[in-house]
Amino acid sequence: MQLFINELLVNIDEDIVTVDKVKEKYKKDAEIIILNGHPVDACVDLELYENDRVTLIKRGEIPKFEELENLMVSRHTPNVHYKLKNGKVAILGIGGLGSNIAISLARIGVGTLILADFDIVEPSNLNRQQYFISDIGKYKTEALKNNIENINPFIEVKTINKIIDSANIHEFGNVDIIIEAFDNPKYKAEIANNILTKMRDKYLISSSGMAGYYDSNIIKTRKIRDKFYICGDEINEAKEGDGLMAPRVAICANHMANLATKILIEDK
């Protein structure tokens, strides 16, 4: 029988194999057992079947670097990690939306992230963006790349530290998905028009409406046309007296990140 033990393929010469037998043989002190992406009770012995995935973890133990990635993906649905690992996503603008999108995609293991922004971190960013006090004054690209490397060192993070517009959008021709996360309406429209007319093979995910603290449930993902989606409530834009705050911005950002995940797994 073939099993994946901590994501490594193992041949076991037994007709009947159970979780308890695997634990006894490969990691007796394991306190967390994950079977096919779902934790199981260590006290309940379960029979295993061909190509089952078993992850054995001891609480609080820091794994060897070469084991870490396999343990990080153990809660994934089986067989999706390879597709995510081969995904390439460009995030244009890494403020409130973009920084949250990047962190979510990094945590699930999207293999290549391209972060594009020209701005630096300043104090008012900290209410909703994935930066820290120690990042103030740094370029957002530099700071976010460093933060991502502390979360998932197994992905490639590329940075582009400049304004993205119609003159250079073609530089993103080798990605699967382009996520537009700008604040400026002029750049949003310019980028969307160029991608939709000149880069029709690319998926484009954009946003509209995530300001304030309105009902979370009116934020949605809407397909506009083939390979073009908008996430948000499409009503509540930031304006005087109606600012941007972490909860709603992160909800919209994760609509966008979840859609990118779905596309990479199902459509690429």
Distance between the termini: 31 Å
Largest sheet: 7 strands, mixed
Rg (CA only): 21 Å
Instruction: Give a count of the beta strands, DSSP E runs of length 2 or more.
Output: 12
Secondary structure category: alpha/beta
Q: Helical percent range?
A: 25-40%
- Which H/E pattern describes the elements? EEHEEEHHEHEHEEHEEEH
Secondary structure tally, helices: 7
Proportion in β-strands: 15-25%
Low-confidence parts? none
Any idea what the shape is? Answer: elongated
Jot down its keywords.
268 residues; alpha/beta; 7-stranded mixed β-sheet; 5-stranded mixed β-sheet
Element layout with pairings:
Elements: E1 2-5, E2 8-11, H1 19-26, E3 32-35, E4 38-40, E5 53-57, H2 65-72, H3 81-85, E6 88-92, H4 96-108, E7 112-116, H5 140-149, E8 156-160, E9 177-180, H6 185-198, E10 203-207, E11 220-225, E12 228-232, H7 246-266
Parallel strand pairs: 1-5, 6-7, 6-9, 7-8, 9-10, 10-12
Antiparallel strand pairs: 1-2, 3-4, 3-5, 11-12
Please describe what this structure looks like.
The model has no long low-confidence stretch (mean pLDDT 95). The chain contains seven helices and twelve strands. The chain is α/β, with parallel strands linked by helices. The strands form two sheets. Strands 8-7-6-9-10-12-11 form a seven-stranded mixed sheet, with helices on both faces. A five-stranded mixed sheet has the order 2-1-5-3-4, covered by helices on one side. Helices cover 29% and strands 21% of the residues.
